[in-house]
Design brief:
- It is built from five helices and 21 strands.
- By secondary structure, the chain is α+β, with helices and mostly antiparallel strands.
- Strands 4, 5, 8, 9, 10 and 11 form a six-stranded mixed β-sheet that branches. The protein has a four-stranded antiparallel β-sheet with strand order 15-16-21-20, with no helix packed on it. The protein has a three-stranded antiparallel β-sheet with strand order 17-18-19, with no helix packed on it.
- Strand 1 and strand 2 form a beta hairpin.
- Helix 2 runs antiparallel to helix 3 and helix 4 packs across helix 5.
- The longest helix has 18 residues.
- The radius of gyration is 27 Å and the shape is elongated.
């Protein structure tokens, strides 16, 4: 199935139907064959079963993508190991971990100015199955590059890392399903490499080969669009309650919720980040003996305020004796 931001589940299911009943290599011929059948039959019925009602539209979209060189690539994975876990309701969930050279290998990249390890994977759709006791369970095929799985087979700590990553991705992609157990427990099955049947084909959109190169590190740059810098002001003001001098930073953050804000204050600089919206590194000159009193987001006017005050004017909590 395509990776994030490409095809929805209905489209992926249809391409799986296409691959099964028309052209095993998932090539362009399959698209043409199906459209020709639809035109000749004047309907959506197929001897192998009914094609989804949105088939015509999906295929038109697919052909448009193919004309731009964006046709999905069929990927056949090779099973390596099977992981068993549980959701919060106690239902068993299996991850069939497999490999394909069409999944990129891990690499060190730059993202938004920071060096990060990129670890590509492809999470397939959920499939209903039953366990050894005949109880319902869910199965997901997950593909990695062979280099990734080679390390996971011999390094339990690394295996734990990628399984946790799968769990997070699953919960993001399938918000309609119960979450994975809060303790994140799982077990590798030693008796089998996969649950159910052989790994199903997945469909990936071709990724651009060229990326910008970070001049400082020489690494490929996967940064998103440059974030806007918010309007801000740093000034010295007098606190009305006691006349104390304070240093106040005020930043305007339209259309932001308080829990989106990431704030770091260190060595005379305030780093402000709202993922996907705003980013700023603000110099704040704080006199000797001043400390950060606190920060507050005012949702009524979308304003963040950070205040520093002399430690001599800190108000300590009064201890109440009962």
């Amino acid at each position: 199935m395509p990776q994030e931001g490409q095809f929805n589940e209905n489209q992926a299911a249809f391409f799986e139907f296409l691959n099964t009943h028309y052209n095993k290599d998932g090539g362009d011929g399959a698209l043409s064959n199906l459209l020709n059948d639809l035109e000749e039959d004047g309907g959506l019925n197929d001897p192998a079963g009914e094609i989804p009602k949105a088939a015509q539209k999906i295929m038109e979209e697919a052909q448009a993508k193919a004309a731009k060189g964006e046709a999905p690539v069929s990927v056949k994975g090779e099973s390596v190991m099977c992981i068993k876990t549980w959701d919060v309701d106690g239902k068993k969930v299996f991850f069939n971990l497999g490999t394909s050279v069409k999944i990129d290998a891990p690499e060190l990249v730059v993202r938004d100015g920071e060096e990060q390890t990129r670890l590509p994977m492809s999470l397939g759709p959920s499939m209903d199955d039953v366990d050894g006791k005949g109880e319902a369970c869910l199965v997901f095929d997950v593909l990695f590059n062979p280099v990734t799985m080679k390390d996971a087979e011999v390094d339990m700590q690394f295996l734990n890392f990628i399984v946790q990553m799968i769990m997070i991705r699953l919960e993001e992609k399938h918000a309609d399903l119960p979450a994975i157990n809060s303790s994140r427990k799982f077990r590798r099955l030693k008796q089998k490499n996969f649950k159910g049947r052989q790994l199903a084909d997945q469909y990936l959109m071709p990724q651009p080969l060229m990326r910008g190169i970070d001049e400082e590190t020489g690494l490929r740059d996967f940064s998103g669009p440059e974030l806007a810098e918010p309007c801000f002001r740093v000034g010295n003001v007098t606190r009305k309650s006691d006349g104390a001098k304070v240093v106040r930073l005020r930043a305007e953050l339209p259309d932001v919720q308080g829990d989106e804000i990431e704030l770091r204050i260190l060595e005379g600089r305030c780093t402000l980040l709202v993922p996907g919206k705003y980013k700023a590194s603000i110099p704040v000159e704080v006199p000797t003996g001043f400390v950060v009193l606190g920060s507050r987001f005012h949702s009524e006017n979308y304003t963040l305020t950070v205040v520093s005050v002399s430690y001599t004017h800190l108000t300590l909590p009064t201890k109440r004796i009962v």
